[in-house]
């Protein structure tokens, strides 16, 4: 798998919102949640929340899930209004799939450092260097980038999407280099050309943290999101036997949920954003979940608060709109993905 060298002033591409500390009492939280529930009925709205959302936001959602599950829910909801408790590219995907609905993103600062690593112009320039290549874009991209792509994918289906592409076609995989490496490993495809992007949170989940955890808790089961900085090293260690293959799993956030439901293990090391732990603990209160990196917090996801959800439902703003022609082209890539899975 060859790497491209593209100048990427990573940190200059996004600005991190500060994380607001909410010190509401349980009674205040409950009262806000009840007001949201009432307003939701009045507006005929549905609330979709990503697994990395604040605990109290996850609690008011009609559906909590990963990027794939959230797009599927958006595509099939009969509601008139979708309140997207997630980040901008997720709300854009909902707006593309549901052009007749009002899609709300309660805080417009909810961006994504990974999506910010590539623009449509950069993708066009990259494609021009590889005529005949197929472009697979991770869902963590803007609508404009999706519109320049042949296929969309999520962490739950990236390998499946790549396997559906004829083996002799080179694949430009954007923008996550760690996910690209994981998919190359899983599919054995030598012709995946990764774009050098990454997520500022997941890249901090390092192999040394994983190894320390395995040493400290020898029976623990390891769940790693494929965006993590440790993914290639962990896959290589599974292959050479330094990490136990029967206890090391590379999974999307929803894949982790499904895995816990079927696993007999009592203790899990979770390599992803720590919001995930709330759902895992709620689903399996008798099991123990330890974050591989307790500092892995996505500031963008945490901009969504109960107050902002409430306000957004009150004023039906901020709305996410995708220009018609961009949406049409982006939808082709999304629909190709949905047809494969
Ligand atoms: P999932 O699709 O696994 O939920 O991941 C989305 C994401 O943004 C990970 O950082
Ligand atoms: Fe984007 Fe990373 Fe936050 Fe996921 S965790 S939304 S990839 S910045």
Low-confidence stretches: none
Radius of gyration: 20 Å
Helix fraction by DSSP (H/I, runs of at least 4): 40-55%
SSE pattern, N- to C-terminal: HEHEHEHEHEHEHEHEHEHEHEHEHH
Strand content: 5-15%
**CATH architecture assignment of the domain at 23-111 and 302-322:** 3-Layer(aba) Sandwich
Count of alpha/pi helices:
14
Task: Say which CATH homologous superfamily of the domain at 23-111 and 302-322 is assigned.
Answer: NadA-like
Mean pLDDT: 95
Q: Please tell me what the overall shape is.
A: globular
Straight-line N-to-C gap: 25 Å
What topology, given as strand order, has the largest sheet?
Answer: 2-1-3-4
The major β-sheet equals: 4 strands, parallel
- Tell me the structural class: alpha/beta
For the record, what CATH class of the domain at 23-111 and 302-322 applies? Answer: Alpha Beta
Helix and strand arrangement:
Elements: H1 26-43, E1 45-50, H2 55-60, E2 63-65, H3 67-76, E3 81-85, H4 88-97, E4 102-104, H5 120-129, E5 134-138, H6 143-147, E6 151-153, H7 158-163, E7 171-174, H8 177-187, E8 192-194, H9 207-216, E9 221-224, H10 231-240, E10 248-250, H11 253-262, E11 267-271, H12 276-283, E12 288-291, H13 306-315, H14 324-340
Parallel strand pairs: 1-2, 1-3, 3-4, 5-6, 5-7, 7-8, 9-10, 9-11, 11-12
Helix pairs in contact: 1-13, 3-4, 4-14, 11-12
Iron/sulfur cluster (SF4) is lined by residues 87, 112-114, 140, 199-202, 273, 298, 300-301.
